[in-house]
Specification:
The complex is a heterodimer of chains A (335) and B (251).
Chain A: H1 10-34, H2 41-56, E1 60-63, E2 66-68, H3 73-80, H4 82-99, H5 108-132, H6 138-166, H7 172-204, H8 210-220, H9 222-253, H10 257-264, H11 267-274, H12 276-279, H13 294-320
Antiparallel strand pairs in A: 1-2
Chain B: H1 3-6, H2 21-37, H3 43-59, H4 64-71, H5 75-82, H6 85-88, E1 93-96, E2 99-102, H7 103-129, H8 132-141, H9 146-175, H10 186-213, H11 230-249
Antiparallel strand pairs in B: 1-2
Classes of the chains: A mainly alpha (335), B mainly alpha (251).
């Protein structure tokens, strides 16, 4: 998902760089304020960034001879919170860009936005939202982290595709299925690894996960917190629906150069007739059949997609998190 | 993982290596900016950019094959997002081997490929001619926040340590017969990664203790002196004006 130089246009680079810089600056401010012994954050963030690197080296098989690797944003968010995760991923991306030639320097803003801000902070938001719907306790915590890992990888790759499309590098019709499709599979491995990492840490050193401590607080004052978190889930869902409604027509209304040319030269009809594959998709071209307005149709398709993912998430959670809340095991702290 | 892999040639002594780190950082950034904004149709400009890379590599005694080899690593990404373009893009088409290809799609693909290759080549040259600590000192000299530079320096330091730990975990698993073949077996990798995180956290605790013992109070001392000489100014001015001229005049 690392975008090299030359794939993202100047205006998109500027916009994403400004957003990312603001997000990272805010994260630094929050981490400085939040952590009691703020100086410990310096070696902790650095070694965790190095950990994300090293963990990326542990490839896992996807099947068919290919392998994926761990991205780490959601895991970092689950372990150390959204602000630390954003800084850690930024460190990883800067070093990857400079030393490993992985991700271009001019595209750093976009890469930080996709993997640090959306991958890290977004994962945390999803995690909090999903956890509100689950029974409190270890099972709910792990299941929410798994869902957030998968979703953050897929959403980040989708945003990456949108950036490429808005830059005119690759039409959304090619980039989005290619990126989101690949990452929907990679995301499964990501979710498995995140769950395993969190299980291991929660068993051996539960004291180092601030979220874990908060979890036990939540468990003791059940009713009150549940309501608060329900509200958060509602806000989260409302936000995604709003994004789907208002964001998706915006994304497709700024057409890339290719679609524009194709439309002008009348190739769009030819493409529509020839590309049989696309017409078989449930929501071809992100539009719903029978809805006249183009903008409304795209919004509706986005809404259906969001709702579908949400329901799918709920089903997965119900299946995964069958563990009763009473059996939260207090991990032994080892020194 | 060997330290060599990352900045193999950064300790060579050459005229380019002796330049101020700030000059090299600005030059690489300006080069990438010019490359990225050049329209793909200006082929001669791209030839000149590539020539500049080759010339600098020769001056710095960095083998061109090394730079090219590292640069080629970006191609898989291009393939994933852009290889379909010549087939799906509209506009005029040309026929190659009986397949109609969109001219505009081909240009977009060629542009993205050339720009990403040149961008990576410039960065590989930058880190191959500047030790990472000097590069960080240079970035700090250019106004990057001190805290962020400290974090980058520590991350770089512990990268090798944790890579080593990761390798040992993987070797231990392999020695016990772990041969993953399908996705559910990724859970074992996750357990290894969990173990690795705990090790990295406990290392951070020890590092923090050591830092406190040595008087750390939020500021890392820097030992890398930056010297901006007349030659640095000359090289920077010459490079920037040459690049700007190529960008504006050559098409």
């Amino acid at each position: 998902m690392h975008i090299p130089d030359g794939f993202v246009s100047g205006p998109i680079n500027g916009m994403t760089a400004a957003t990312s810089a603001a997000a990272v600056a805010f994260s630094v401010w929050r981490v400085k304020r939040e952590v009691g012994q703020k100086e410990f954050a310096v070696p902790l963030l650095a070694t965790t960034a190095a950990f994300v690197f090293a963990a990326q080296m542990l490839n896992f098989p996807i099947g068919g001879g290919t392998s994926g690797h761990f991205l780490g944003a959601a895991t970092a968010a689950a372990l150390l919170g959204p602000w630390s995760a954003c800084i850690i991923l930024t460190l990883v991306l800067v070093i990857q860009g400079l030393l490993f030639a992985d991700g271009g320097i001019s595209a750093l803003g976009s890469n930080v936005l996709n993997m640090g801000v959306i991958g890290g902070m977004g994962a945390y938001l999803i995690m909090r939202g999903v956890r509100a719907l689950l029974p409190a306790g270890r099972g709910g915590y792990l299941a929410s982290a798994a869902v957030a890992s998968w979703a953050s990888v897929v959403v980040a790759s989708g945003v990456c595709a949108v950036e490429l499309a808005m830059s005119g590098t690759s039409p959304l019709g090619i980039a989005l299925p290619a990126m989101a499709g690949t990452h929907a599979v990679i995301g499964i491995g990501e979710a498995l690894i995140a769950t395993a990492v969190l299980t291991a840490v929660a068993t051996a050193r539960p004291d180092i996960i601030p979220e874990w401590a908060r979890l036990h607080e939540a468990h003791s004052s059940h009713g009150r917190t549940r309501r608060g978190v329900w509200a958060l889930a509602g806000v989260g869902l409302a936000l995604s629906v709003a994004l789907a409604l208002f964001g998706s027509p915006f994304a497709s209304r700024s057409p890339d150069g290719l679609e524009k040319v194709a439309e002008q030269k009348g190739f769009m009809q030819a493409a529509a007739q020839d590309k049989v594959v696309w017409t078989r998709a449930p929501l071809p071209e992100y539009k719903v059949k029978g809805v006249e307005s183009e903008k409304g149709s795209t919004s509706l398709a986005g809404l259906i997609g969001t709702a579908g993912v949400f329901v799918l998430g709920l089903v997965v959670i119900k299946v995964v998190a069958r563990q009763p809340t009473g059996r939260v095991r207090q991990g032994q702290k080892r020194k | 993982m060997e330290h060599d892999f990352l900045d193999k040639y950064s300790s060579v002594d050459s005229w380019v290596h002796r330049l101020d780190a700030r000059v090299k950082a600005i030059a690489a950034l300006f080069f990438i900016l010019m490359v990225v904004t050049t329209p793909p149709q200006h082929l001669l400009a791209f030839v000149i950019y590539a020539g500049l890379i080759a010339w600098t590599a020769a001056l710095a005694q960095v083998p061109l094959a090394f730079v090219a080899g590292r640069a080629l690593l970006v191609l898989p990404f291009s393939a994933l997002v852009a290889l379909g373009l010549p087939f799906l893009g509209g506009g005029e088409t040309i026929t190659v081997l009986g397949i109609g290809l969109s001219v505009k799609g081909l240009w977009v693909l060629a542009g993205a490929a050339m720009k990403s290759l040149l961008g990576v080549a410039a960065l590989v040259l930058l880190v191959s001619t500047t030790p990472f600590s000097m590069l960080l000192a240079g970035m700090r000299g250019l106004g990057a926040p001190a805290l962020f530079i400290d974090l980058l320096a520590l991350t770089y330091r512990y990268l090798f340590v944790l890579f080593g730990e990761g390798m040992r975990l993987r070797r231990a698993a392999a020695a016990r017969g772990y041969r993953p073949r399908w996705l559910p077996q990724a859970a074992i990798v996750g357990r290894l990664a969990g173990n690795l995180f705990i090790r990295s956290y406990e290392r951070a605790e020890r590092v923090y203790g050591a830092m406190r013992l040595r008087g750390y109070s939020g500021q890392m001392p820097t030992a890398a002196p930056l010297r901006f000489r007349a030659a640095d100014g000359l090289v920077l001015a010459a490079l920037i004006s040459a690049l700007a001229l190529v960008r504006v005049l050559v098409r």
